[in-house]
Amino acid sequence: MNANPRDILQHVFGYDAFRGPQEAIVNAVVEGRDALVLMPTGGGKSLCYQVPALVRPGTAIVISPLIALMQDQVASLVQSGVRAAYLSSTLDFQQTQAIESQLLDGRLDLLYVAPERLVTARMLDQLSRVKIALFAIDEAHCVSHWGHDFRSDYLGLSVLREQFPHVPRIALTATADPRTRADIAQRLGLEDAETFISSFDRPNIFYRIVPKQKSLDQLEAFIRREHPGDAGIVYCLSRNKVDKTAVSLNERGIRALPYHAGLSGAVREENQTRFLREEGVIMVATIAFGMGINKPNVRFVAHLDLPKSIEAYYQETGRAGRDGLAANAWMAYGLADVIKLKSMLDQSDAADTFKREEKRKVDTMLALCETTSCRRQLLLAHFGEHMAEPCGHCDNCVEPVPGWEATEPARLALSAVYRTGSRYGVEYLVEVLRGEKTERIAGNGHEALAVFGRGTDLTDKEWRSVFRQLLARGFLQPDSEGYGALRLDDSCRPLLRGEETLMLRREQARTVTPRKTGGKPALDIPHEDRILWEALRAKRRQLAQEQGVPPYVIFHDSTLMAILSARPRSLKEMGHVAGIGDSKLDRYGEAFLDVVNEYA
Ligand code: ADP
Ligand code: ZN
Could you tell me what percent of the chain has a pLDDT over 70? Predict the structure, then answer.
């Protein structure tokens, strides 16, 4: 094949232009050089190896850690008229043989392979007998112990450089931190590769963290107001909470499925397939769900529990809006979350260095929750990116949070902890501060304390917010027994001695939606276009069902949106729509043209 990259981009994938660094990456690989690509989710990593795969002679071998991911990619490529296949343990002997002979006959443009399979003697032998266009190592952070998805099979991939020194290799990941990056380069022998680092900003995602009250009511309100009928993911920390949340959402008339490691493989598989294939399914899940889910139109990611690190938070929220259309990252966060997370750290019997590292991660996560400035600036700064101006597209930017001078109340709270002997939880401490005459307080003789009744000018809720922020900043620590008792941390001394002042977030009822989206659904289809939009979706659903593939494999939402605004009147015009290449035009052009003619 001697097509050039732009022709392939236009005719096969239906896009007019490369995005960001794609073209430079494609050229490097086409010319036979190695590349290390760091790009956020939704940045467009796939084309970086799929285009060179079609430009260079031979078969491109793509190493991918998840079967679902391979299936999806292959289904999409086949729709675009590309000769793609995958080898995985789900195939039977005959299917495997058929694909192997396609490989050996040079009839494949791309072959997706799981890492454990690639390194078998059989596979390596077959590869040595065919022309290989390139090796693409997807989700390359799996090779690193530092990452969260370490896969020992990935370590075996160093064999590629040894056995195929002249075949270009491209490794891709959405994990940004420098340590993981260095690890990838070293373990895969990519020290000399050209490195391409994109901005990790996800401008289409709106970040919002709300104070937790009744989190299920808050979640329901959020979904009803902003995401009726949309697909989304709700993350919870425990399996138990996943189950309860899914049941509760269904009882409230919102279709949701559970996903966690305690469910049988069959149930997980089925729920995942429904999430991918049906529209508007909400997945309630632990972190077991998500890696390799490249459903492009996940419109929101909600957290009912606090992730353990900013990396995890960014990875999880990054699953929203891969298609570049508007999406929401929403989290409810409260006092109990801080206590839970901190005492979990305390109780773990991990080595001290590990614990310190974990603690640092938790602290930066808490800082993100408590910040009064732009969330995106803080997030990006964490990945070493400097953003000069506040983003204007997060809750704190859209509705600035006032700070308040809280030095005095903070000192009162700290001395309440100290005077009561570091043996009580927040509820009790607030009662003491507010001077409540309970039997328990009387029994403990705590009415006699100087702090008793000194805090009547703050409400119960305000006090809880003070305690939460003191915990988040590390001035207070939960006891290690996990009963929620608080003790002072050494770091609070300057504050107690009056050498430091403290500004805290002024909590307000901010269940309000950002003005930007104004509480409207994320995909804001104009009223007069609704009928056509639904008709286009129905056609897509029908075609997808006939072939047993997810709807987005036929067309992404962004392509349907483009049809909606272009209103093509001929096949030629249809062919100009972004996301419609030659093969898809052949297959579906007529069908969607009919829909436009009928409903527009
Ligand atoms: P990643 O693997 O980095 O998460 P994908 O490769 O899935 O991202 O691409 C994300 C989305 O962007 C997909 O919908 C894809 O079709 C679209 N896309 C990628 N490159 C381009 C481009 N050059 N022009 C238009 N859309 C693109
Ligand atoms: Zn902002």
Answer: 96
Q: What's this model's pTM, rounded to 2 decimal places?
A: 0.86
Q: Which atom of ligand 1 is nearest to the CA of 556?
A: 14
- Residues having CB within 6 Å of any atom of ligand 1: 15, 18-19, 22, 39, 41-47, 294, 296, 322-324, 556, 578
Question: 455-469 burial, b for 16+ CB within 10 Å, e for fewer?
Answer: beebeeebbbbbbbb
Residue 162's Cβ-count burial label (10 Å; 0-12, 13-18, 19+) is: exposed
Cα(371) to ligand 2 centroid in Å equals: 11
Which residues lie at CB < 5 A from ion ligand 2? 374, 376, 390-391, 394, 397
Give residues with Cβ within 8 angstroms of 278, minimum separation 6.
Answer: none
Close Cβ partners of 583 (under 8 Å, ≥ 6 residues apart): 12, 79, 80, 81
What digits encode the pLDDT tens for the residues 344-381?
Answer: 777 777 788 888 888 888 889 999 999 989 999 999 99
Q: Which of 46, 170, 325 to mutate to test the pocket of ligand 1 (most atoms within 8 A of CB)?
A: 46
CA distances from 448 to 425, 435, 452 (A): 19, 10, 7
pLDDT above 80 for 483: no
The answer to whether 30 and 56 are in contact (CB under 8 A) is yes
Which domains are seen in the chain, by residue range?
Answer: 5-197 (3.40.50.300), 205-333 (3.40.50.300), 403-504 (1.10.10.10), 527-598 (1.10.150.80)
Q: Which one of the ligands is nearest to 372 CA?
A: 2
Q: How far is the CA of 372 from the centre of ligand 2 (A)?
A: 10
